[in-house]
From TrEMBL, chain B:
It comes from the Bacteria. This is ABC transporter permease. It holds the Pfam family BPD_transp_1. It comes from Marisediminicola antarctica. GO terms for cellular component: plasma membrane. PANTHER family: DIPEPTIDE TRANSPORT SYSTEM PERMEASE PROTEIN DPPB-RELATED, DIPEPTIDE-TRANSPORT INTEGRAL MEMBRANE PROTEIN ABC TRANSPORTER DPPB-RELATED. Gene3D superfamilies: MetI-like.
Length: 536, 309
């Protein structure tokens, strides 16, 4: 999962270091060369890891990688995959894939992009001892191991433009994943000195680094157009200047003053006003980010039938509309399922979805039923990291639970993201806790399997349901996406009954752009589609 | 004087070890595993986490980590950040920026503060004095982030006469606005300190004597009043310079200055031991040197201190 540290870990004043734009001087000089050559200035954050596709799992680095690399496919704004380097991706059983790539693509150092460039990069990313943060992306390929260094035996190079992939089990959404950065190819030079490569990466995408040292740490990175790129994302502008901001407030001030062309993160203190200020040039649309809180079954009063009743009661005690309006100024969308409205197969009318509606009477009734099984005692507290701007909504949710159910409910702040994640990972946290999920690729399955499948890597609540597991697996085995989505929706009805996590809302992407640019559209993953933006 | 300076410099050694050990321990004792946080909301595969922990020596006991770190410093290796950059590079990149910001702020607050304070003191009770007192009270009471946001909005967004954020390379002209904001609070204190000292000195015997000797008014003010009034002010400025080097976090965040405050804040959030400790070490040294310079300056302002044993 690619996570947004600004969103999940840090908020408020003063964060990373960063710097503003070289601004007008550069921009004007470039405009003189004619339309299409002007550089787009936009916000970003200092990549937390070297710029190696499989080492990057956060948005700051991801935004850069997606622009300097081209994978087998890329995603349209609505999330539908389009072939980028792939000529074709074929399968008959959703388990064995034959991938053919275009024959004339090159890296920006002149090396050809071959089937081997993909296979080598994937082998590197998957190898345990390489310590790549995105290694889990290869877990479904045959040969992958979490326990020891192991070759991906499921990968085989057929010829320069063809390779085959064998998965451990059928997974029909595998082709959908291939636009994620972990699956980008690498040139051979990368493996000679991966550290040096991570500092000055050589890609094959619509943009490339503006020479050695184009990445000015904590300040900005300059990207120029890669003239050899011939895929569907050909740049309509002269390049990108991605400035790393310490705070969203600083970036917003730059947008207001015209120093910044495109912003994809409006600070909380401007949420109430930015749509008035930017009018048509304001962006506020749902993103592939699902927010929830998890109540593990191991907690007292939350196991078995009693737990189910209590979870449903708590869910119905929350007025999601009110919180998204009042606290988030409409920058969240109340949840109606466990995925996101931007994903194909999303539904706002699943069986059992009424459990996500505010219904105090029913909540009280269910809570009383649970009390009949075993009387409630103690306090309901909701854990969150106080460095992530969660306090306001946690307090609101706690208050609503308190007022509706008449129990003692409070927020339980932990100072840092690291602290709460450690407690969650070690299963030592003794309260319900906030959870969030940002999709890696636009597929329903990506919101379900990693979080709720028995034993899955992010199953923080240790949820286990045979019914859910089998529906999910069956969905993955379908080669027809429609049929697959049908099963994933059924799997979600199981979740709506058990509520392993209480769905809250989907985050919206909020942003804006200056009068100097046109054709600004935000992709399914909340990142502007930079290659299409024109300026001047 | 020389011995005095040497003795002060020798004090740096225990302070260096004391401070680094303490800070290292505090970072080490921070709750939560920084490596787990690298995974985001998705948990990190335990084997990958272990590999990363080993890479950053986080799997070793506290004292071993500390010794590795300190040992590295003596051969010029300050360790690496989680993003793989040598901490020495980060230091070399951020300190000059903050140093420039602090110098600019100190210059602004010193020049303006002393001038206004002097005039206020000389015209005690008059309109200028009363206005200066009100304005300085205002600057002291308003939190710095408010001053910063207001200044950014008015001069950057509305009037467009200053950059809303600091440009790449942090050129001097971009630093002026943040420096003014940073200087505003200390400026107010300097005005008040200077004013009080000037008023005290005006009634001193040596001022009366100097005037009686027939010295011109400007000379009396410059040599006798101002020089004697500077001792508390210089002390304050010295401390303030140290504070500015360390405490500009809020202002650096708002104006997006790629300086020390911002970087340190980020490193603390990520529990990056080597980065935090290296930064703090350099800060400690700057603080010590700034204080040493102040003590030496005293000698020039007040000969009694110079000759005292």
């Amino acid at each position: 999962m690619r996570f947004n540290r600004i969103g999940t870990a840090i908020a408020g004043i003063g964060m990373v270091t960063a710097l503003a734009l070289t601004g007008c001087a550069t921009g004007e000089a470039a405009t003189e060369n004619g339309a299409g050559s002007a550089v787009i200035t936009t916000n970003g954050s200092e990549p937390q890891n070297p710029l190696i596709p499989t080492a990057t799992n956060e948005t700051g680095g991801g935004k850069i990688l997606d622009n300097i690399f081209a994978g087998l496919v890329y995603y349209e704004a609505d999330g539908s995959p389009q072939n980028d380097l792939a000529e074709s991706i074929e399968t008959e059983d959703a388990q064995n894939y034959t991938i053919t790539i275009k024959s004339d693509a090159t890296f920006t150092n002149g090396d050809p992009v071959t089937a081997k460039s993909f296979v080598d990069a994937w082998q590197y990313g998957a190898l345990l001892s390489n310590g790549q943060l995105s290694s889990y992306f290869f877990e479904s390929i045959e040969g992958f191991s979490y326990d020891e260094d192991s070759e991906l035996t499921g990968l085989a190079v057929v010829d320069d433009t063809t390779f085959t992939v064998k998965l451990k089990q059928p997974e029909s959404d595998f082709p959908l994943r291939l636009g994620y950065s972990a699956f980008f190819p690498l040139p051979e030079v990368a493996f000679e000195d991966i550290d040096a490569f991570g500092e000055n990466p050589i890609g094959n995408g619509p943009y490339m680094l503006d020479g050695e040292g184009a990445w000015q740490h904590n300040v900005k990175i300059d990207l120029v157009v890669n003239p050899d790129y011939e895929g569907g994302r050909e740049a309509q502008n002269g390049g990108l200047e991605i400035t790393f901001y310490a705070s969203q407030e600083a970036a917003y001030a730059d947008l207001q003053s015209g120093n910044l062309d495109v912003l994809d993160a409006v600070p909380d203190n401007a949420l109430a006003t930015f749509e008035d200020e930017f009018g048509d040039r304001a962006i506020n649309q749902p993103a592939a980010v699902f927010q929830s809180f998890t109540i593990p079954e191991r907690l007292a009063h939350f196991e078995g039938e009693e737990g189910k009743l209590r979870r449903a009661a708590i869910s119905m005690a929350i007025n999601r509309e009110e919180i998204t309006d009042v606290i988030f100024e409409g920058s969240r969308t109340p949840a109606t399922d466990f995925t996101s409205p931007v994903i194909d197969g999303y539904s706002d009318s699943l069986d059992g979805a009424e459990v996500l509606e505010f219904n105090p009477d029913e909540a009280v009734k269910l809570w009383a039923e649970a009390d009949a099984i075993s009387p409630w005692d103690g306090q309901f507290s909701l854990g969150y990291n106080s460095d992530g701007g969660h306090e306001a909504w946690v307090d609101a949710v706690s208050n609503q639970i308190k007022n509706t159910l008449g129990i003692d409910a409070v927020g339980a702040p932990y100072p840092t993201f690291a602290e709460i994640r450690t407690l969650v990972t070690e299963r030592t946290i003794q309260t319900p806790f906030r959870t969030g999920w940002q999709a890696d690729y636009p597929a329903l399955a990506n919101f379900l399997g990693p979080i709720y499948f028995t034993g899955a890597g992010s199953n923080d609540g240790d949820y286990s349901s045979e019914e859910f597991d089998s529906l999910y697996k069956e969905g993955l085995a379908q080669t027809d996406p429609e049929a697959g989505n049908e099963l994933f929706q059924q799997a979600q009805t199981v979740l709506l009954t058990d509520l392993p996590a209480i769905p809250l809302w989907y985050s919206n992407v909020t942003g804006g752009y200056s009068e100097n640019v046109d054709n600004v559209e935000f992709g399914w993953n909340s990142v502007p589609i930079y290659s299409e933006i024109t300026k001047g | 004087m020389v011995w005095y300076i040497v003795r002060r410099l020798l004090q740096v050694i225990p302070v260096f070890f004391g401070a680094t050990l303490l800070i290292y321990f505090m970072v080490f004792a921070l709750p939560g595993d920084p490596i787990i946080a690298l995974g985001g909301d998705r948990g990190l595969n335990p084997a990958v986490a272990d590999a990363l922990r080993a890479e950053y020596n986080l799997d070793k006991p506290f004292i071993v980590q500390y010794l590795i770190f300190v040992g590295g410093i003596f051969v010029g290796d300050f360790g690496t950040s989680f993003s793989g950059q040598p901490v020495s590079d980060i230091l070399a990149r951020t300190f000059p920026v903050t140093l420039r910001l602090a110098l600019l702020a100190v210059t602004i607050e010193t020049v303006l503060g002393i001038l206004i304070g002097l005039f206020s003191g000389l015209r005690k009770g008059k309109l200028f004095d009363s206005s200066a007192l009100v304005v300085s009270l205002l600057f002291i009471s308003v939190p710095i982030f408010v001053t910063a946001f207001v200044a950014q909005y008015i001069f950057g967004v509305k009037l467009g006469i200053a950059r809303t954020t600091v440009g790449a390379g942090a050129p001097w002209e971009d630093l002026i606005l943040p420096a003014v904001v940073l200087a505003s609070v200390s400026f107010a204190y300097i005005v008040r300190l200077t004013r009080t000292s000037v008023i005290e000195n005006l009634n001193e015997d040596f001022v009366r004597t100097a005037t009686a000797k027939g010295l011109s008014r400007p000379r009396v003010i410059r040599v006798h009043i101002l020089r004697n009034s500077m001792i508390p002010v210089v002390t304050y400025i010295g401390t303030d310079f140290g504070l500015l080097m360390v405490g500009a976090t809020v202002t650096e965040g708002i104006f997006n200055v790629p300086g020390v405050g911002n970087t340190l804040y980020q490193a603390i959030i990520r529990s990056e031991g080597p980065t935090v400790v290296s930064f703090v070490t350099v800060m400690v040294i700057i603080y010590l040197v700034a204080n040493l310079l102040i003590d030496v300056l005293y000698g020039f302002l007040d000969p009694r201190i110079r000759y005292a044993k």
